[in-house]
Design brief:
The protein is of the alpha/beta class. The protein has five helices and seven strands; from the N terminus they run αβββαβαβαββα. The N terminus is likely disordered.
Length: 173
């Protein structure tokens, strides 16, 4: 009986969809990912004090290149790697807007141990079969197609305006 219950719990966990998640925003509101059905969604774990923080500006460049298309960019700051995200709340959003021109969605600070990140890493391992079931550093990127399927994952070093990344996004638009 215990094995059956464990199997059922595993099936429920695997049945989750990107659209089942809600993300806390810096203003205290909640962003329901289900509202992005029919759009390409790019999720990135970010940190303002990371060596890759220049990608915050590049995420805005990516967003603005496709602002008339069905692309949604969401930065999800985490403080899990070297304490490189000291900001949270409106201070975080103000910083990203002033310093990097961010007009994309900015979540309030989360942890890579939260259910959304567990889902992202599990989906990467199952669907892309080339990634470990964990996030290794800040600025890992996850790209979902218009049906909510994870299609691409990129490591920190891959710029969101590189040819390879833009080609991946554009193949889904």
């Amino acid at each position: 009986m215990i094995k059956l219950i464990a199997l059922f719990c595993l099936m429920i966990a695997n049945a989750q969809s990107l659209y089942d998640f809600k993300i806390p925003l810096t203003n205290g509101q909640t962003l329901e990912l289900g509202s992005f059905r029919g759009k390409v969604v790019v999720l990135v774990n970010t940190a303002t004090k990371c060596g890759f923080a220049g990608q915050l500006k590049e995420l805005e460049q990516l967003r603005s290149m496709h602002e008339t298309k069905d692309l949604v960019v969401i930065a999800i700051p985490t403080n899990d790697f070297g304490g490189q995200e000291p900001l949270s709340g409106e201070t975080l959003k103000e910083y990203c807007t002033a310093k990097h021109g961010a007009k994309y969605y900015i979540a309030d600070r989360m942890s890579i141990n939260d259910p959304l990140f567990k889902f992202l890493t599990r989906e990467s391992k199952v669907k892309l079969n080339s990634f470990p079931e964990r996030i290794l550093w800040n600025f890992e990127k996850f790209i979902f197609d218009k049906e909510g399927n994870l299609r691409f994952r990129f490591r920190s070093h891959q710029s969101p305006i590189s040819g390879k990344f833009k080609k991946a996004v554009e193949s889904l638009l």
